[in-house]
Design brief:
single chain; alpha/beta; six-stranded mixed beta sheet; four-stranded antiparallel beta sheet; 10 helices; about 35% helix
Length: about 260
Amino acid sequence: MSRPSLTYPGKTAASAERPMIELAGVDKWFGTFQVLKGCSATVARGEVVVLCGPSGSGKSTLIKCINALEPVSGGNITLDGEPATGAGDLPRLRARVGMVFQQFELFSHLRIIDNLCLAQQKVLKRSRAEAEARSDDLLQRFGLLDHRRKYPAQLSGGQQQRVAIARALAMDPVAMLFDEPTSALDPEMVGEVLDVMVGLATSGMTMMVVTHEMGFARKVADRILFMDRGEIVEEATAQDFFERPKSLRAAEFIKSIGAG
């Protein structure tokens, strides 16, 4: 598999003044159940932040709120200095924040090249030729160009997830969100997807990643946000989180997954 060689702006002095992503007191209710409770955090340009915690702690809901897949019930989210809560132009917002899900969410009736071109043409108004050129470049980088005319069902799970990442990148996002991107994969396919994500991280892409792959978190994350019961309980560098957790809940979580 070809390793991606994309390059993104990365962390700069200016980006330290204005976060790429900023969460301020974000609440989320589903009926009478509060899923998120006053979540506040920032992600700098080019930073990789991993969200971890027990199942049901609100991790996936939090990142879905960032690109308005879930509307917030309270608080504010800012993306590259612009309000993301209550955004009127949702397609534009979602183009700026790429999202990769547990399931691949590819259009099963479209060929791979058409999956990548559709949103580029509809949202970014690129010509078909421009969209195909951008798509082919990404497919080439991810070792998938030979599969461009196949349908998703003809690819392995790992290949489909790499296509999903390429589709998000084709929109030239300023940040990427990953919601447990390897959880639906067979163990032998996990590595090829993590390789792509490591390549993105080292190339300077701003990333928020919900994952149980603690090896990835140790290797790539600039910071860890540990969530429990809808709250961000702890925020630390990867080394501090795994070696010197500050909260009892984080220490118990690390012990339970054998990552200490």
